[in-house]
Amino acid sequence: xxLGESPNDKxxxxxxxxxxxxxxxxxxxxxxxxxxxxxxxxxxxxxxxxAKQVKLLEKEAASDTTVGKPYAKSKINITSQDVxxxxxxxxxxxxxxxxxxLWIKNEAxxxxxxxxxxxxxxxxxxxxxxxHPLQASNIPSSALIVGTALQVEMNDAKLxxxxxxxxxxxxxxxxxxxxxxxxxxxRSGWVLVNGEGAKRVCCWDWFDFTQIKETATLKDxxxxxxxxxxxxKDNHSLSQYKPTIKETLSILDKQHPVETxxxxxxxxxxxxxxxxxxxxxxxxxxxxxNYESEWYSEIDAEGKMPKWEALNSEMTEKAKNVLMYLKExxxxxxxxxxxxVDKAKDSPEAKGFETLRREINRFPADYKESPSKKLTxxxxxxxxxxxxxxxxxxxxxKTKEKIKKMLWWDDVAxxxxxxxxxxxxxxxxxxxxxxxxxxxxxxxxxTLSADGKAWFVHPIALFNFKPKFCITVDMLKRIFTQAxxxxxxxxxxDINKNYKLFHLDTELRLTHFFAQSLQEVGAKYTSSAESxxxxxxxxxxFSYFRENPSEAKLYGRVDKPENNPHAADxxxxxxxxxxxxxxxGDINSGDGWKFRGxxxxxxxxxxxxxxxxxxxxxxxxxxxxFVTNPDLVxxxxxxxxSAVYFWLKYKLHKKADNGDKGEHVDxxxxxxxKNTKTYENRRENFEKIKKEKIFDSISF
Length: 700
Description:
Elements: E1 20-22, H1 26-37, E2 47-50, E3 55-56, E4 65-66, E5 76-78, E6 87-93, E7 99-105, H2 108-113, E8 119-120, E9 127-128, E10 144-145, E11 150-153, H3 157-160, E12 165-167, E13 173-180, E14 186-192, E15 198-201, E16 210-213, H4 218-228, H5 243-252, H6 268-272, H7 278-285, E17 287-292, H8 306-309, H9 312-328, H10 331-340, H11 348-361, H12 371-374, H13 377-406, H14 409-423, E18 453-457, H15 459-463, H16 473-477, H17 485-498, H18 507-521, H19 543-547, H20 549-555, H21 570-577, H22 591-594, H23 606-620, H24 636-649, H25 652-656, H26 662-673, H27 679-691
Parallel strand pairs: 16-17
Antiparallel strand pairs: 1-18, 2-11, 2-15, 3-10, 4-9, 5-6, 5-8, 6-7, 12-13, 13-14, 17-18
């Protein structure tokens, strides 16, 4: 049965255990491959390694001048050869004899037209810099210090964006990266590629890998892990721990800002805490530990496993001592127990066991034959407590039996050794021999270390694992609480396939997008065409009816009996309000009504329906004519896509990037529906999605 499939999911929980190790001389191998890596051409090194304690520039220098007015009819020239950068270098002739070289911010409007050696038209007061805004000389005075080393892909999509790349006057490349600083806070700053402590590397450089030859016993490791559970602000020093535990805790601690005085321990919750923090789980994956395999154990003359037997005192000693006291009134065993848990004889816990012993002492002699029948209800409760202690002792013994049955290392090691000996045995008389091979063509024999020692490598470090971006139906159900699963599945599918293309690739953008969507389509995720059921007085909000007031009463809704009541002529209203606008023809064309608002963001006007048609064909390589059939926008298949088209056309993702305050929500609302009365509702939608952290678990 494939992993994850089951006739009954409740009965089957799939698990995958991946273990990567080598018994070869890993340090020597690393040294050899690093030597080969040094021969790799710079342009072929796919990663940037940023070491701990490297300083970054948190922000660029302030502009110190303006572009000014070009001389006579001269043009402003772009001298940057790479125009997909945060700042462009330009030349401007300021007088008959003077040419200035300046730097300008590569804003969206400039980026649209910027070409190498191209020309620009800029306002005289456009902010500019006489020197590149990022200067290596400013790095030493920066307060942004990298606290956790990291490795980033040079071709990462985020680093390819112009706002995250810069090339200075000397041709040096700068990248804007997210880091954890020396206080364990997430911050971003500009790093100078191939500057101090930030070098381009390839996978064979083994950047920031730590080699640990662990000599501690299994019991030592167990005691260290147990001791870590008691860490606090007064007892958090790592110097008291064995190397593997020490290095692990030092990484786990970084999930909490230093000022919180929160310290981690070796438990499941601590590791879950870094699941969404790539800098930390990849740092953890770069620990190379040489230790004895869990699948190996020495077996002594009595058939026992010494390293596991050493844990008896931790696993069962306390329970055994209490049992001896309860059953045989062994005071020495009880004192040993109280000492191990640091309790006094007059403590409530000690008195509780004294009471329990007296109750057990009053059990009938034959109670073991049928405890449930021979004992009273109160006695049976006491019996259950003693039974739990006995199970604790026997459970550990059964666990050791299970461990012993699962040991395979020794058998495989001996089997490989025997196989290698057979391969080296000379052929007997009359047997054919294989053609000799040169040493270079001979595959080294496979072996396992006889003592169970190996170098363990975390699979994430090998595979450069990165969780996949994934919006789920469950996430969307928390927003559109009454929508059907089929509709939500379509939304999730379309965004997951094209989240970068749709510019729905950050938590902030998704929150803004769905805050608006929820208001437009409601919890059921349904949409209807725009209603133009206006009263005649309300039509004064439109310029056409202000200029033609007599038509307002003719086509607008009239409710009062004394005014000759009639329904609104919505088609006539649409043709007049939207006529000769947004690509529509005149009143008689009927375009105003045909191309009235539809879809999640109320797409309006023939030009927008044509734009959606063209965008859809370009994106999906299939033509769907929304001009001929505008009601398609209302269908479940296209409801989301019409909103995405609007989102992209008006660059609402850029406005979303501005922040998470109410004013930022309002700026987007103004573009989607300027005259709506639902500004406050949309702000509330945004706060709800943000507070519930609906998209917090997505890996961007």
